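Lab notebook page, bench 4
Experiment: in silico fold of construct C2
Operator: M.H.
Input chain length: 387 residues
Purpose: comparison with the prior construct
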Amino acid sequence: MVTAIVNGRILAPGGIRHGVLLLEDNRIKGIDDTVPARAAVIDAEGCYVAPGFIDMHTHGAGGADFMDGTVEAYLTAARMHAQHGTTLLYPTTLTSTNEALYESFETYRKARLENRDGAAFGGMHLEGPYFNPEFAGAQDRRYLRNPRPEEYREILDRCPDLARWSFAPELDGAAEFAAELKRRGIVASIGHTNATFGECDAAWRAGATHMTHFYSCMSTISRRNAFRYAGTIEYGYFQDGMTVEIIADGIHVPADLLHLLLKIKGAERISLVTDSMRAAGMPEGQSILGGLADGQPVIVEDGVAKLLDRSAFAGSVATADRLVRTMVREAGCSIPEAVRMMTENPARVMGIAQRKGSILPGKDADVVIFDDDINVQKTIIAGKTIG
């Protein structure tokens, strides 16, 4: 079946194009001047037609968290994110017991088979437990520890769906851990860390290629025994090959730092992530960070989740459309530039750019249609309109 999207401003590689975007079954067929006979027509009504958003760091949405341990939690979060333009997401765990982690692996596999009307699942992202307790943020310090080969190899063996793992490079054994991830084709990402410039460089040389929620729970210039040391943030700026992600909800990273990041790092090396917890898409008030069984009570107010003592943020409540809107309104990005950070860039980071992240013939028919204010009008996943 051929679907023709007409009257849209198509965000294609190289710029905005005007024409008819053709989707055939679950693939992009191309951009043409005419509507084929018997094609199903979608009128974009002058809106932007973009690649589907890719969220490579999210913990949940719609009142559900991926650590809840139920298939319905996965499906609920996927449906909520799809309503806001996300066509592919990477369910992200929080630091927990290994038993809870293994349960989440099984639940992920079941949910992927049942997911028919939500954002697709691209693979799992483990956030922890190999983090620095001083930079734990909202992570549960009870479970933080150093990487041990016998432990992480078992986890890796039990989770063939693992796509990414975030860790702190200053921990004992971290370089060997990064090398193991690289050997297995898993994205090794630096986060929740007090690492020095040199420790980050060692992780880079071992296989780390990405930085988790840049600026958040991350070291900068520090004085140690009277000497100054550059930190993780400085290394992220220095190493051209290192990609970074930001929680562009307008709260975690203020506008001046967004401008600085764009100026130094360049839009081509920045991805946008929600890092959303269960309250994304829900009214403000009391919520829980992590699984229902042993999660932390948090408060959602002022457009963000906070620990109860308000000493730190506890994840965002953003959806992908809000991230794009923030980059346009507060960071001065063009819409094509902001969309690239939510589509093409995360596809490259996760190694799936050959089939996702841009509107090109042969790629997956994942499309989002939104207006000038980045209000999502329609989400299409694998050629199927959602909602």
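Observations: DSSP finds ten helices and 25 strands in the chain. Residues 98-114 form the longest helix (17 residues).
Next step: discuss at group meeting.
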